[in-house]
Amino acid sequence: MNVLPVNSLDTPRFCGVPTFMRLPQATSLHGLDAAVIGLPSDSGAPFRTGARFGPNAVRAMSVMLRPINPYRGNINVFEKLACADVGDASVVPGYEVESLDRIEESVAALVTAGIVPFGIGGDHSITLAELRAVAARHGPLALVHFDSHSDTWDKYFGGKAYSAGTPFRRAVEEGIVTPGQSIQIGLRGSLFQATDISQSLDLGYDVVTTDEIFDIGFKALADRIAARTAGRPVFLTFDMDFVDPAAAPAVQTPEAGGPSARETLQILRLLHGLDLVGCDVVEANPLYDGPGQITALLAATVLAELMALLASVRG
Amino acid sequence: MNVLPVNSLDTPRFCGVPTFMRLPQATSLHGLDAAVIGLPSDSGAPFRTGARFGPNAVRAMSVMLRPINPYRGNINVFEKLACADVGDASVVPGYEVESLDRIEESVAALVTAGIVPFGIGGDHSITLAELRAVAARHGPLALVHFDSHSDTWDKYFGGKAYSAGTPFRRAVEEGIVTPGQSIQIGLRGSLFQATDISQSLDLGYDVVTTDEIFDIGFKALADRIAARTAGRPVFLTFDMDFVDPAAAPAVQTPEAGGPSARETLQILRLLHGLDLVGCDVVEANPLYDGPGQITALLAATVLAELMALLASVRG
Amino acid sequence: MNVLPVNSLDTPRFCGVPTFMRLPQATSLHGLDAAVIGLPSDSGAPFRTGARFGPNAVRAMSVMLRPINPYRGNINVFEKLACADVGDASVVPGYEVESLDRIEESVAALVTAGIVPFGIGGDHSITLAELRAVAARHGPLALVHFDSHSDTWDKYFGGKAYSAGTPFRRAVEEGIVTPGQSIQIGLRGSLFQATDISQSLDLGYDVVTTDEIFDIGFKALADRIAARTAGRPVFLTFDMDFVDPAAAPAVQTPEAGGPSARETLQILRLLHGLDLVGCDVVEANPLYDGPGQITALLAATVLAELMALLASVRG
Amino acid sequence: MNVLPVNSLDTPRFCGVPTFMRLPQATSLHGLDAAVIGLPSDSGAPFRTGARFGPNAVRAMSVMLRPINPYRGNINVFEKLACADVGDASVVPGYEVESLDRIEESVAALVTAGIVPFGIGGDHSITLAELRAVAARHGPLALVHFDSHSDTWDKYFGGKAYSAGTPFRRAVEEGIVTPGQSIQIGLRGSLFQATDISQSLDLGYDVVTTDEIFDIGFKALADRIAARTAGRPVFLTFDMDFVDPAAAPAVQTPEAGGPSARETLQILRLLHGLDLVGCDVVEANPLYDGPGQITALLAATVLAELMALLASVRG
Amino acid sequence: MNVLPVNSLDTPRFCGVPTFMRLPQATSLHGLDAAVIGLPSDSGAPFRTGARFGPNAVRAMSVMLRPINPYRGNINVFEKLACADVGDASVVPGYEVESLDRIEESVAALVTAGIVPFGIGGDHSITLAELRAVAARHGPLALVHFDSHSDTWDKYFGGKAYSAGTPFRRAVEEGIVTPGQSIQIGLRGSLFQATDISQSLDLGYDVVTTDEIFDIGFKALADRIAARTAGRPVFLTFDMDFVDPAAAPAVQTPEAGGPSARETLQILRLLHGLDLVGCDVVEANPLYDGPGQITALLAATVLAELMALLASVRG
Amino acid sequence: MNVLPVNSLDTPRFCGVPTFMRLPQATSLHGLDAAVIGLPSDSGAPFRTGARFGPNAVRAMSVMLRPINPYRGNINVFEKLACADVGDASVVPGYEVESLDRIEESVAALVTAGIVPFGIGGDHSITLAELRAVAARHGPLALVHFDSHSDTWDKYFGGKAYSAGTPFRRAVEEGIVTPGQSIQIGLRGSLFQATDISQSLDLGYDVVTTDEIFDIGFKALADRIAARTAGRPVFLTFDMDFVDPAAAPAVQTPEAGGPSARETLQILRLLHGLDLVGCDVVEANPLYDGPGQITALLAATVLAELMALLASVRG
């Protein structure tokens, strides 16, 4: 089944209810290779809330994108991959644990059908639910984690274990991520405790700070990611606050001093050798974007590059 | 066929790609009584442009609305009427005449199937296309026209006959509206020529200015509309600039000094005795709404009240 | 203890960290008659989130207000009442039940000290926590509830009992509100079920819809409220969506067609004979206000009018 | 000399650098009856600043307005009055006294040439400079003052005599306004001191609060203004905060609970019998308007109505 | 004739109706070397519309700029070049072909008078009209085209030949551009068809993608442009979407991953050896800029750098 | 006295009235090493005004920051330095000279108590007042000045000596800065006069343009600053327009083409060897920030880095 998106040379991009890249809305999961799914929960957000509106904001800007990726040999992503937009998981706003359960269930339905999920958050706590669903099929995962924060705290407000600040400690504890084959990229900024970064290392993750990205270079970074994750199914999670607030102002916890959009896309286009079984882009919050909606556009572009990465492997 | 909208007590309103009032997206026209259709053309706009984004903005706020209308006997609109969202007509941006042709064609498909169209503009020029499609089936129509401007100019820039300033002169000339059974409501503000209002009277329309609405009262206005249109199929067109800019800032040509949202809805809820065969709400432009999107919400509410009007008659 | 606010004729209003009406920040509860407390939880919000930023937004606009109220005999509110801003309750974002517990605890500390709490929300679910704290001291309360929605649903998403849609059913069940001496004012708009309004009547509340407010007149409404609540301690809760979105765009679930700001303040200024033991203003969300922040200003004004009401009784 | 504005039926309103109502920019004062002049000073603003951008914001929205006024007998204002836009007075930002001097000088140039000035502020302190210039030719003036505040304080921050809070005390002291033939309309809201209103009465002004406007009715108000000012040249000053923040959010010191735009324009259209020798509209600040720029549109409309008032008298 | 702009050390920049860099508005074309002209058409825009408001937005921010350019030997541009702002071409909104005709006519008037036009768009389709006017005098032109898209499509919606997606194919077909001496710089992002870039090469253009700009370096790029265009009159067109959306969010079709503002200006300041006979900056749309209006500022700066380029050659 | 900020892992950052980095509000100056003070004057602003709201905007975003700085050896700044937020100096809006006096007085109170002031502007004219207060104790200061403009003009509008364009000429004239040990960094863009930069050199300052920053490299720049200022107490002033408008749109006089946020922070983190006795960050104006408030966040981050610089020296 190869269903192509609406052709934006025939029908203006503003026509019709926007799905991701104008893909068809799935009425069945049958025959799909990959599916975009909205995961509109922000119950895990300790600061700015509103990422529940992220999936539709990203969809609205994604109509700008075109199906052919020149950075991976001019492949037409949707000729390589049967893709669809499957809508959103339901959630229970204000109930973090129940929301994660619902998200896990929705993602599991995709994974069970052999579909690679491309999630749109939502705050970063949702990734734990995705990891649970994906690991249930593929076993412990290699995590490739772009973010300016490690999100490996133990507890958050009220001693709660589940929040946008804790998923990647929980994932290790639950055995659904193999930290020794996982890597966190982009950490920067001031810290709560002197152990903010070492706590990730202690969990077994490899860590590359923003400064180190520029020290070692993008090509070496891509190679390090490939080497780190070799031989294991990969889940790639991309927190929009990896990028500098100039290019991604609309995030929960912006951290000044990150890579530009051009640098970010260069890194993603250099990624190679990943056995991608799931991915997401999280923390885009349209309430904090200006009228240009550049965060949503960049989030959509990031997801499209990850689709191209999968398509290039599958082709 | 009675397909109900997504239940917003079960699934949060922010989940899923938004259709009008969370109605199903039609995959077939079979069995529908009424259909919401986006008409995203702003090529007729002489001032502010961007109403091409109106349909999706109105849909996004319409998820707030609920199916039961307490102003017409607590009817569940969607139990009375089989409704769906049929997406948008395609248009040719920058080509006014061709855009009207495409809109006419899309609306005609609905009307031919016996469906009452509920259009979301787009600028006001699109109403001419709708009138052509509806009159083709129902004959010359009684027009009920809410607007702060008459839109009965002869020519606009470049001597062009088709623009948001001219549709209701064209409609009389084309014989698709019966001005003697039609009425324009809400005219106000400064004029280009001393004949701005008399030109509508000369065409045969009845005219009620904003001041007269308050002089005669809302009940008398509703009766006058009913009397004026009696015995003829009615097309109701609602330009959002009928309302004061405080309640509807996001329009092409705002005119200070109009009715409030409460007054506007009161008038619509008093309408009676209309043989409604089509209607639209036009000129909502999200680029000029603040973050609260109150113009889009009011436009959605207006359309929902018109659906309830139809449902109360059909019931 | 009569501590006066910063004098805005001496020090510009933009100087200094803004507290409510530039009141002192309390370092002790001793000697206070009334206290403003922020209750920044939005975990109960089924639609738009972000009311966690409401308390500070309302404070920022409240610096515009002056201490003397000409509608109640030119009283200087802060000479009649020893007031302070006590900061915010802590909350657990994403954990509705725990957040309510913390809010209850913070409000209880005030009530126990004999202080009348003036809460700033937060979403409307927080009122349940306040009612618990206030009723613990004063017994079952007469509720005066301004809102365009009844918030008397039984369950919300995921079958959850606690949300912004349910507090006033819970309050009856918990015996902390006496519905026979309580009243809901301002209901309007489309309904989920035909019983949306009757369910409040079934619980024992008196209900005045928006249409009825204008039918009976503001003076009669104030008298009806006084008669309904006579002889019982009153908690007054004011949801900003009572007001039309033109004057209060920045709310969670705006409902087109409400009273204007002038009408709203007229009603509040006519209130009399209430034994006010607590009150709040909720659902102001600065993310949805335009740069003029008119919702926050109106919310601050509403709270100041309620302070004047208390001061006029206490004087 | 009767120079007509650009015809907006020939040339789109967005074409060309916007002058007030698309009037010609004056290259000479010769032959003009009335002139629009920007007075872009906000050095008198005690709270929100930015009204320096007011004149151009009002001009930008004024292109919406048309030359014929149906509320005063369908007169074409610009056939009755030779009008032009003379640009802006220069000012010295951060130097209140010097800015007033420059404004006085610019307005005096108009008045000396027999031209009625229509000023666009700027904060309200600028009116003192205009009054000085106009009274220098016409003698002590009858002031018609629409505002939610009296602006009759004695001193402001730092004991300074000149600020947006003091001009109408200074004007009495300087003998350029005759308070016994002057009137302040629209006062409302909380007060700094119990004498906030009585201090205006003590100075000799008549005062009509917002509540009283609605008590006595608009027709009676217009008659009272006419009677009060009879026989003396009138300067009319309109502070945009007279209007409710829903319709005029973008002002320095918004005061919730004012008249709507429709009510405001009704009052202005009923004014009669005034010997208008100067007027202004002040305190519109585009930084606080939303994208719809409704405050600027209303300010432009107010000024256009005042032009029609003058034209109707001169005709 | 050397008329200097208003001196921003004497008169604040916010005073007066803004022309480009506060230049005089031309009342005659006599003696001018260069003229800024607004070309406010957006009828060619396939996605975001509103660039009709671009010229005045760019003018408003251009008042920030000063006359001396330190990157080209501290020349005072306006002592070298007699410049003026000649206002806007008229257009026919919604009628693409007629709008191009009017723009061509207005630009031709300048070119015929020996004036170098500096156009401010408007969408990119307007450049075709400028090229027609300029080539009519100077013969086929060398095009230097900064853009993230090639705009060399054959047809767009409805099979229409004229749109913002097609001008640089039309220009080749019409023989007004010499592709063998022309160059497109900055292409990037996803593609509609695998031939998106090769179609430009097939037409004869040289193409430098965004990636290649950084591979070869800015100095080499400037040399390549000089070599490519040597010996032929040059028209330089600058689409604001060349720049990354972080620095230019307010464009019709933003493309994530472009050069920064600093990099962009560095490239422009290195340009040399061009026989510049016309240029424009297009696609700035203030509706999508935030309150900082950084896209408009950058567009103004780009145009000012091009003026300095011309001045440095002419001097 | 080592008072720590509110712990953002215990209490959500949105709880409570925001002070800088959630530091305690000082009730006494006793025992403090450093203090954050708001200096909310914009009376010196020649273009965009509103920086009076800068201090509270910077505070609101500063709650994102954490106490430990990994770029200077993981020091906990607030364990090294006893810090507090001492609120704002009072000012006299519209009276530049008086405002400077009040600011000087407030800063002097800190300096006299041995406290290093960390000022938040306000427009850049306020730095003169700070320099006066600091030099009164420490003698003539070495100025480290980050800015895209030199601010060394002699006079501004109306021949006034005090404005945001003149402080660093005044400071030399007053003998409170030693230009031979001072340095201006970041100048760029178009000039009023060919002497714009040489006038700084003539005064004795060292100057590094934006282009030169990148030519010599960040490490060499930091060394040059250290060498220049060696042996003298340093006041560091940071104008937010040093940064490119993409990363800092909300400034008075944005100048396209500056360093990114990442580059800016890299430079600050390389600073060393400075005997810091005072510093400020100025010209952040929230009215021009989008909803993401990235300028305010970056301003807060800059100030936090300067605190870390001081802490690293003091430790």
Q: Can you describe what's shown?
A:
Six copies of one chain form a homohexamer. Chain A is an alpha/beta fold and 315 residues long. Chain A has a single domain, classed as Ureohydrolase domain (Arginase, Chain A), CATH 3.40.800.10. Chain A is built from ten helices and ten strands. Chain A has helices spanning 54-62, 77-80, 96-112, 126-138, 167-173, 198-203, 210-216, 218-229, 261-270, 294-314; strands spanning 34-39, 68-69, 75-76, 83-88, 116-121, 142-146, 183-187, 206-209, 233-239, 275-282. In chain A, the strands form two sheets. In chain A, strands 4-1-5-10-9-6-7-8 form an eight-stranded parallel β-sheet, with helices on both faces. The model of chain A has no long low-confidence stretch (mean pLDDT 95).
User: How far is the N terminus from the C terminus of chain A?
Assistant: 15 Å
| Approximate shape of chain A | globular
The name of the CATH topology of chain A is Arginase, Chain A
- How many strand elements of chain A? 10
Strand adjacency order, main sheet of chain A: 4-1-5-10-9-6-7-8
Name of the CATH first level of chain A: Alpha Beta
Task: Tell me which oligomeric state these chains represent.
Answer: homohexamer
**Number of separate structural domains of chain A:** 1
> Biggest sheet of chain A, in brief?
8 strands, parallel
CATH superfamily of chain A: Ureohydrolase domain
Query: Stretches of chain A where pLDDT falls below 50 for ≥5 residues?
Result: none
In DSSP terms (H or I, runs of 4 or more residues), the helix count of chain A works out at: 10
Topology:
The structure is a homohexamer of 315-residue chains.
Chain A (H helix, E strand, L loop, with lengths): L33 E6 L14 H9 L5 E2 L5 E2 H4 L2 E6 L7 H17 L3 E6 L4 H13 L3 E5 L20 H7 L9 E5 L10 H6 L2 E4 H7 L1 H12 L3 E7 L21 H10 L4 E8 L11 H21 L1
Parallel strand pairs in A: 1-4, 1-5, 5-10, 6-7, 6-9, 7-8, 9-10
Antiparallel strand pairs in A: 2-3
